[in-house]
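Entry type: protein chain
Record version: 2
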Amino acid sequence: MKDVRNTKTVNVAFLVYDQVEVLDLNGPLDVFVKANVLYPGTYNCYTVGTTKDPVRVEANTMTVIPTYDIKNCLKPDMIVVPGANPEYVMAYLQDDDFQNTVLKWVKDEYDSGTVVFTICTGGMLLSKTGILAGHDITTHTMLLDALEKYNPESSVKRGVRYVDQGQLVTTAGITAGIDAALYLIGKHLGQKAVDAIVKIFEYQHTNSGK
């Protein structure tokens, strides 16, 4: 992640879509929110949907109203792509509308220099975008084989919590998103910030990335 301390607020866009996994979304989101509480003005966190209509999260337990839609959102410095249940992820890979709208937006932003940070099966969602090609990547253990199949030009890493490739960061399953978010905060703000957030979370932090 580029070092923007003392220069500007970092816009962090959290993608939301039908059946998004709640902890994939809220775990990293809360890490960045807490960092912004400790260091006001550092991060501007917001959600982005295809439209601003309410989005149903996993198992239809609640809905999220996106802050912005993909056509009118603030220019992101980072896009966080949470995952979903594998069956939904595989369906989205065959959904031309989702590919040509939501994931095209992610790809266009990536091509313009935006960091893309995927959580869990969110990495699998990018399999047809070209973003993963030539990179070391990972995802939830349930989809590692599928990730290899769909991304022959990538090197799939197993047994790690996250993989940092600079402009692309991918993680293993669910709670690994919290670990990677803490890692990115540390990379940007230093270990003191990470320690403060871990203490607030009362979290057993695992720092085992690549």
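Comment: Residues 22-38 form the longest helix (17 residues).
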